[in-house]
């Protein structure tokens, strides 16, 4: 069976590690060439992509900087000439009451989690239009759907990603440019960051008790949703949100 992303060009922010790295690995296994855009070098991700027999381009990029994102788009044009898939994944997760945050802290969360999605989409759009049927997948969160304590800045940023995605989908549909935009909303996922945050056994247990399926998700399980949304199998989906949370938000 042919791979659904054979020889497509996928640009993934935050792909040097964590969930973004899992996305890169999964899309490469499905045939895509990967552009790794991250504030740190993505050498390990490059190895994963090349092991899958695909081309990898690692670009150091500050996703909250317009100049940096614009330069990234230039590198993609020089290397590949187009973009078929854009995955806006880079983000941070502060766990802090909003009244204890400085305004600079608040702005940093919005810049990395939300401004980056605007910038990535703005500068990738002409390259996606060249594809003829480009796909944007923005990584939001269940905290973009339901709130939680001590996560006000994060919730605001991820809710912004959710609705920006829908607006992007409508604008692209109206333009008849062949570009679709959808969002993925992960729940609790097993990453080094979550393991550190849930190191307390009692906190881990209480977290698991709130997930109906009884466990945390795995990065590749979230990646599978990305692969689907980026593929022709989801060609009638745009402006949609796919929740992958073990049933958490169904309660």
Q: What does the largest sheet look like?
A: 7 strands, parallel
Could you say which overall geometry the principal axes of the C-alpha atoms support? Answer: globular
**Which CATH architecture is right?**
3-Layer(aba) Sandwich
Strand order of the largest sheet: 3-2-1-4-5-6-7
In total, the number of domains comes to 1
Summarize the amount of helix as a percent range. 40-55%
Average predicted local confidence, pLDDT: 95
Poorly predicted regions are: none
Enumerate how many helices there are, as a single number. 8
Description:
By secondary structure, this protein is of the alpha/beta class. The chain has a single domain (9-188, 220-245), classed as NAD(P)-binding Rossmann-like Domain (Rossmann fold, 3-Layer(aba) Sandwich). It is built from 8 helices and 7 strands, in the order βαβαβαβαβαβαααβ. It has helices at residues 18-29, 43-51, 66-79, 103-131, 152-175, 192-197, 201-209, 219-230; strands at 9-13, 33-38, 56-60, 85-88, 135-139, 180-186, 241-244. A 7-stranded parallel beta sheet has the order 3-2-1-4-5-6-7, sandwiched between helices. Helix 1 packs across helix 8. The relative contact order is 0.14.
Q: Summed up, what is this model?
A:
With 251 residues, the protein is of the alpha/beta class. The chain has helices at 18-29, 43-51, 66-79, 103-131, 152-175, 192-197, 201-209, 219-230, and strands at residues 9-13, 33-38, 56-60, 85-88, 135-139, 180-186, 241-244.
């Amino acid at each position: 069976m042919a791979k659904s992303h054979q020889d497509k060009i996928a640009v993934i922010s935050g792909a040097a590690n964590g969930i973004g790295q899992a996305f890169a690995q999964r899309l490469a296994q499905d045939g895509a060439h990967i552009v790794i855009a991250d504030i740190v070098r993505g050498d390990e991700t490059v190895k994963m992509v090349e092991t899958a027999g695909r081309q990898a381009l690692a670009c150091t990029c500050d996703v909250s900087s317009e100049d940096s994102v614009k330069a990234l788009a230039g590198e993609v044009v020089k290397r590949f000439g187009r973009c078929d898939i854009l995955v806006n994944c880079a983000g941070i997760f502060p766990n802090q009451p909003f009244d204890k945050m400085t305004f600079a802290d608040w702005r940093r969360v919005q810049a990395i989690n939300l401004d980056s999605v605007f910038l990535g989409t703005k500068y990738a759009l002409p390259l996606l239009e060249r594809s003829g049927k480009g796909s944007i997948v923005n990584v939001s969160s269940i905290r973009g759907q339901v709130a939680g304590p001590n996560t006000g800045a994060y919730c605001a940023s991820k809710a912004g990603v959710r609705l920006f995605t829908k607006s992007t989908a409508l604008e692209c549909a109206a333009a008849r440019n062949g570009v679709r935009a959808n969002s993925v909303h992960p729940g609790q996922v097993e990453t080094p960051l979550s393991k550190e945050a849930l190191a307390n056994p009692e906190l881990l247990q209480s977290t698991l008790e709130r997930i109906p399926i009884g466990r945390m998700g795995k990065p590749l399980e979230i990646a599978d949703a990305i692969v689907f949304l980026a593929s022709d199998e989801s060609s009638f989906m745009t402006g949609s949100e796919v929740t992958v949370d073990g049933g958490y938000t169904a309660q």
